[in-house]
Structure formats: C-alpha cells, structure tokens
Specification:
It is built from 13 helices and no strands. By secondary structure, the chain is an all-alpha fold.
Length: 270
Amino acid sequence: MFSQVFSKKQSIHKQQDQLYRVLIFCLLLFSPVILLLSPLPSFLIYQGTDNYVSHLVGWLIITLVSLLEGYLFLSVWQNKELIFFKYLFGRNFNKNLLLTFFKFTILLHVCVWAGYAKVDWSLSNLALTASIYAYSAGIFILQLKFKLAPKAEIKMKWPNIKIVNFILLKGNLTSIALFLIGSYVCYIFLNNVEKIEVILAVVGLWLILTTYLMLQIWRSIRKNQASMSLFLTNINSNYCTLICTITNWLFIFALVTSLTIMVIMLLPAK
C-alpha cells in the first residue's frame, strides 16, 4: 500500500516542489561521477585496514547519503498524511514505511553494493553490509521522528476526564462486570458453605478468574494508551506522560481497593 501511494505522491511532488526537482536534476546530472565514486564508501568500510580514518570517512559518506535519501523520501509526504498512516497501521507503521524507503532508495543501494567490485565477498563483509543498512535504517527513523515531532506544544496542566475514562473503560466493561458478578457470587456462596475444602476451592477459582480479568483489563489499558499516544504527544509530550501515569495509578488503586474490600467481606464467612 505504501509503495503504490508513494509512487503516486512522488509523481505529483515532482511537479510541485521546486527543491525536490532541483535535487533530482543534480543527481541525474552528476550520475556519471556518482557511479564512478559509488564504490568508495563501502570499499573504505570493507577493506579492513588498520587505518581508522578511512573507515570513518566511509561511514561519514554513508551518513550523508542516508540523510539525502531520507530527506528526498520524506519530503514527498506531508505531516498529516504520515500521522494518518501511523494511526492506520499502528505499530507496523515504522516497519512498512522503512521497507518502502529501502524499496525506492537507489543511491544508497549503489553505494553499499558497489564496494564489492573492489573487495572479495566474505561473511565479515556481508555482516558489514547488514550493519550499514541497520545504520541507515536508524538514521531514517530519527528523521521520521523529527518530522513528526510537534512544532508547537499546547499547554495543558490538568488531565481530561473523558480521555482518562476512555483509556480506562474502553474494552473493559465486560471484564469489570464479570469481576463484580464473580466477586458477588463468591461472597454469597462462601456465606453458605462451612467445609474448608469447598471454601478453598471457591476462593482459588475466584483468584484465578480475578487474575485473568485483571490481566485483560491491564492489556486493554495499555492498548488504549498506545492508540492515544500519537494524539496526546502532538498535544504535549508531558501531557501524554501525565495521562498514562494517572491511568496506571488509577488501575492500581482500583485493583487494590477492590481486592481489599472483597477480603474484608470474606473474613466473617471464614
């Protein structure tokens, strides 16, 4: 999906962005020189000599190439489009966008693989190739985070109750209802049973059910926090941290209070 959208966006962007067209024209104009010098960065990295300056120069060239390719790729997208895709793909957003980046980048691939025209194939050189791609991926992710970083934060000091309720309750109403019903049934049942074996069995089942439901509620809260994190971060990064901290402590407080009340209610029955 990213590849198809990017191809269309790229064709439109070429006609609208003058700087993008100038950079592409310069790359095409100097393509013979670029092809002639393309083995240099990876050769300096692969050659494995004791001259660390050559390795440093090689990595520096790779850094510049990665920054240029990342800029050209991300300049095609507007921030609101990237934010939409981030909401759409969730945790897979970075991976999908990174795969599309490596699919469309050409200069980086040329600089990485052209070095093998000067050096032999070996496991150590292939490991260096993988490390170059991992390094380029890290640079791209940093560029992406910088592009998506909020330009101006909205000052908000107090947590919004609707957002807190959304994070705590969305997808949790069934689990909360089952916890309350299970606790009530357990309380009624234990008040009418005297055998210690039956009491222990019922309490054990109640603890298993409670543990399962609490884990389900906690997972749902974390999922809701993740789904709201991009929106909250664009409002204010500190506000996002505040909301997550409040919802975490409210869950812990509600859990401890509920278990304490249930234990107090069960004590007379024992």
